[in-house]
Design goal:
The structure is a single chain. By secondary structure, this protein is α/β, with parallel strands linked by helices. It contains six helices and twelve strands. It has helices at 13-22, 34-38, 50-60, 63-68, 78-81, 180-200; strands at residues 2-6, 26-30, 41-44, 73-76, 86-87, 100-104, 113-118, 133-138, 140-144, 150-156, 158-165, 169-172. The protein has a seven-stranded mixed β-sheet. It has a three-stranded mixed β-sheet with strand order 5-6-9, with no helix packed on it. Strands 7-8 form a two-stranded antiparallel sheet. β11 (158-165) and β12 (169-172) form a beta hairpin. It is globular, with a radius of gyration of 15 Å. It starts with a strand and ends with a helix.
């Protein structure tokens, strides 16, 4: 399996690449948009703000390849947030792969939400075999227009959507690359989903 990790200038690229390599795939940390079409799966990381991530994607020429992508996609943290329509954080217009907004966390003890927390929700192949406890660092979270894409929910003050999937495209608000064995299992699960998609193609 060839997994492309999009290098748009913001993300924990080394840790993500190491986690994917541990799952037995070949990892391309890519600044070349053409790599996305050669890959069996794509990981879109992100730290910072939605506006800065979108600017990095535009500068790298990644927006059209992401919108046209047929291989499975995994967005991590802000890399998931930019898959929605727009963000309350900075008014950024995002990719719009899913309809919905990214809103500031409400009713929280403090901002940002930093630390370990549970992800509840239905069984899903992306979360299979994990203890569903992951590491979070964020102040915003997605509000999907279609509740059916939400596969995980976390409570920090109020409940928020922490994982999404439509079967081919997936997103997590937490950082699997910082979540120990559970995070490594999630990345391995994504590689398995990429293998299944390649076999079905």
């Amino acid at each position: 399996m060839r997994i492309a990790v999009v290098d748009h200038g913001a993300g924990n690229l080394v840790s993500i690449a190491q986690g994917l390599s541990a799952a037995g795939c070949r990892v391309m940390v890519s600044t070349d948009r053409a790599d996305l079409h050669r890959a069996d799966g794509v990981v879109l990381p992100g730290v910072g703000s939605t506006a800065s991530v979108m600017e990095g994607l535009r500068a790298g020429g990644f927006i059209d390849p992401l919108l046209d992508l047929e291989a499975p996609l995994l967005g991590i943290c802000v890399g998931m947030q930019v898959l929605f329509t727009a963000s309350e954080e900075d008014g950024a217009v995002c990719l719009g792969i899913w309809r919905g907004t990214v809103d500031k966390l409400r009713g929280t003890p403090r901002i940002p939400h930093i630390g370990w927390n549970d992800v509840s929700g239905p069984d899903h192949p992306l979360l299979d075999g994990t203890d569903r406890v992951f590491y979070f660092v964020h102040s915003f979270a997605p509000v999907p227009a279609d509740p059916k894409v939400a596969i995980g929910e976390t409570t920090y003050g109020e409940a928020f959507c922490s994982a999404v999937s439509d079967g081919r495209r997936h997103g997590v608000q937490f950082h699997p690359e910082r979540s120990g064995p559970a995070g490594l299992r999630l990345l391995a699960n994504f590689v398995l989903l990429c293998e299944e998609a390649a076999d079905a193609a």
